[in-house]
Amino acid sequence: MATEYPEYYLYEEIPVVFIEPAEGGLDCLALSKATGAFERDMRFVHKIRFGTTAEIWELDRTEFIQHVEKYRGEHLRGDGPAFALYETIKALEANAQSQRKPLSDAEAALVRTLRFESHELFEKSLREKNLTGTPATPGSF
Fold this sequence. Notes:
Number of helices: 4
Structural class: alpha+beta
Strand order of the largest sheet: 4-3-2-1-5
Helix content: 40-55%
Mean pLDDT: 93
Distance between the termini: 23 Å
Number of strands: 5
Oligomer: single chain
Number of domains: 1
Shape: globular
C-alpha cells in the first residue's frame, strides 16, 4: 500500500512533516524555532521511521496545527495579530495554573479556536515572506 503524504508527527515537542515533492521521493520538514517556518531537515526521517527512544506521535492535520501553534507561541517572539493571540492563550493558561486547576471546557475550546486563528495569521505572514508554512497537500512544499 502506498503511503499518503503529508504525514504529520510530533518528535518530542517538534512538529515534523513528511511530504512527497513533485519530483517524487520523500522530504522531511521540521518547524524552525527561529522563524516558525517549516525547513528541510532530513535527520528526522531515520529517527521517526526506524526508531529511537524519543517520544513520537503521528497526528492528523487538525491536531498537528494545534501543536504547531503551541510550539510557535512558546518559542517565538514578535509583534502582530498572531502574537497577540499567543499572549491571550498564555494568559488563559497562566490564570488556570495560578488557580491550580485545568482549563475549563470553555477555556480549552477557546484556546483551540485561538490556535486555529493564529495559525491562519502566521501562515499568511510566512507566505508574504516566501517562507514555508504547514504543508497541506502532496507536493505543497
